Amino acid sequence: MSFLVLDNLQKSFGAVQVVKDFNMSIDKGEFVSFLGPSGCGKTTVLRMIAGFETPSGGTISINGKDQNRLKTNQRNIGMVFQAYALFPNMNVFDNVAFGLKVAGTPKAEIQARVKEMLALIRLEHLADRYPYQMSGGQQQRVALARALAPKPQLLLLDEPLSALDAKIRISLREEIRQIQRQLGITTVFVTHDQEEALSISDRIVVMNAGRADQIGTPSEIYNRPATRFVASFVGTLNMIDATVEDPAARTVRIGDQVIALREMPGSHKAGDPILLALRPEAGSLSSTGDSRLQGEVISSSFLGSVVRTKIAVGANAVSFDTFNAPDLTMPTPGEKVTLNFSSQDLLVVRD
Ligand SMILES: Nc1ncnc2c1ncn2[C@@H]1O[C@H](COP(=O)(O)OP(=O)(O)O)[C@@H](O)[C@H]1O
Ligand SMILES: [Mg+2]
């Protein structure tokens, strides 16, 4: 049975519906990210789960129990926010102890639990520090320890890393994931950063204007984007506008070239527009793969580990990446080239 179930969840503020028919089942111990641009409703869904907002429709259940009538403090949920929301007038120990004190936990038990939490985040030596005496990364680790101290059944993290600089962000996300695995706590992590979501999640929900566009593993989301939005947001850079040539032969037309797809959705008729996606790492100029497109080089840029070449194919600009090598010759603008790829990498996506 799923641990956290969001069933047809809705939220309107006045006349504006910001969460629409949101459905999601999360297993116990799973790490799920909500990924989407600013304003798509991620925080609103999280706040409904925590009980800070009342849904306009639908239900939330945790461990088989309907949460809609429960108050925030009855849900046993730990939360970490983007801005360091530590109590500025309390030291690290008292911040982490806060939830336990409110719950009336005996003093000796609080001592032991806080010690355990500070060991978990490797800050035992800073128990007496105040928030202003610590770096952003350290403050977020304390916020995590504070959220985990009362042994919540669910952990919600709302863009906890976005105020930190790049290097700390990467090391802290790995640390969060490692702690989450160690405790086996079911976690929902909100982010607008696709690389972050891809790197740490069991599954990702890609959100677009209050809806879940696609739910899947990082590999499914990246390799098989279902919609134009997912393909563009998650980084499948090449979107190719084509028209259906012959549905029975699974062929499409791109400018003056006709090419066969591995699969053609049943509903498509000759002449219909069809949107295709091709990941930049799926193409190459060497003649490998069972599909090819003729094009003309627009530009070629050296990005360090890869060289990204943009070529014009019909009215589309298609980028592809080649790993750097010391003897690599860069394609020159205007050069006529053949882009080779495997037909299974050319996907049909919903527009
Ligand atoms: N209390 C509120 N009253 C009115 N509109 C709100 C309120 N909270 C959020 N919104 C609106 O709902 C939409 C989704 O917001 P939010 O869930 O914060 O998005 P995200 O976290 O994905 O950036 C935004 O357009 C936001 O302006
Ligand atoms: Mg938000």
TrEMBL record:
Residues of the signal peptide: none
Transmembrane segments: none
SMART domains with a match to the protein in the record: AAA
Alphabetical keyword list: ATP-binding, Nucleotide-binding, Transport
Gene3D superfamilies: 2.40.50.100, P-loop containing nucleotide triphosphate hydrolases
Superkingdom of origin organism: Bacteria
Protein name: ABC transporter ATP-binding protein
Organism: Pseudorhizobium endolithicum
